[in-house]
Design goal:
Helix 1 runs antiparallel to helix 4. The protein has one domain: Thiol Ester Dehydrase, Chain A (Roll). The chain contains 5 helices and 12 strands. With 244 residues, the protein is α+β, with helices and mostly antiparallel strands. It is 26% helix and 23% strand. Strands 2, 3, 4, 5, 6, 7, 8, 9, 10 and 11 form a 10-stranded antiparallel β-sheet that branches. It is globular.
């Protein structure tokens, strides 16, 4: 597989990034008082000091009741009330944003993803390069030549990351799944390993931009609102992961 576009080699710490340009106010939501406006000096210092780190890098399940709870607070949180939704576990990568744990969701590939860039400020497409002749009818892909394509496995949606507490997520073991699914997870995992630095940098930029400006961009989660909801959520001991 070729190197992912826009990917830097992994490093343990993330450098400061330039502030993004805010979209017109008509296209954004305002955060609540918990994420209100602060002085630019405060946020410049906070951005310099804040790190986004990975702890025990891997894929994690998230408590289903907690997801439902957050979705009721902010509809951008990925959750569905369709039948058997629990049978398709919510997977994500856990990062430490400042002093808080966040989960960045990994979503299955969809036809609409072929219209997206491989990487932008809020996501990464996870893919592999294969000969076109190896495609199956259900595969989702983007051609790169007459003979080769990039088969899309999933999308890592950094802009939809959610705050979480200990006891509400658990690391998955690939060996617990059938070989076909385990092979897919392994490919996704190896891809994400290569872009750890980029994931962390994007998460920091999105998080600090929202905190600094008080603006929630379209299709982004409202971090201040979700952090307040997370603080109020009660983790129910050893049964917290039930329904994952």
């Amino acid at each position: 597989m070729g190197s992912p576009e826009g990917v830097s080699p992994p490093i343990s710490r993330v450098r400061s990034v330039k502030e993004g340009v805010s979209p017109p106010t008509s296209e954004v939501r305002s955060v609540n008082d918990a994420g209100g406006f602060r002085s630019s000096c405060f946020f410049e210092k906070a951005e310099r000091n804040m790190e986004v780190l990975f702890q025990n890098f891997g894929f994690y399940h998230v408590n289903l009741d907690y997801l439902r709870y957050l979705h009721e607070v902010d509809s951008e949180v990925q959750f569905s009330n369709v039948k058997n939704y629990a049978a398709k576990p919510f997977l994500g990568i856990v990062v430490l944003v400042g002093q808080r744990h966040y989960v960045i969701p990994l979503t299955s590939a969809k036809p609409k993803h072929t219209k997206l860039r491989y990487a932008d400020s809020g996501h990464y497409l996870i893919y592999e390069e294969i000969p076109k002749e190896e495609l199956t009818p259900k595969d989702i892909y983007k051609p790169i030549s007459d003979a080769m394509v990039r088969k899309i496995f999933s999308m890592l949606e950094i802009k939809k990351m959610i705050p979480i507490k200990e006891g509400l997520f658990s690391r998955i073991e690939f060996r617990d799944y059938d070989k076909r699914y385990a092979d897919l997870l392994e490919k996704e995992y190896r891809f994400c390993q290569k872009i750890q630095d980029g994931i962390a940098e994007k998460a920091k930029r999105i998080y600090m931009d929202q905190k600094r400006t008080g603006i929630v961009r379209p299709m982004h989660c409202d971090f201040a609102k979700l952090e307040a909801a997370c603080d109020q959520y009660e983790v129910k001991g050893e049964k917290a992961l039930a329904g994952v």
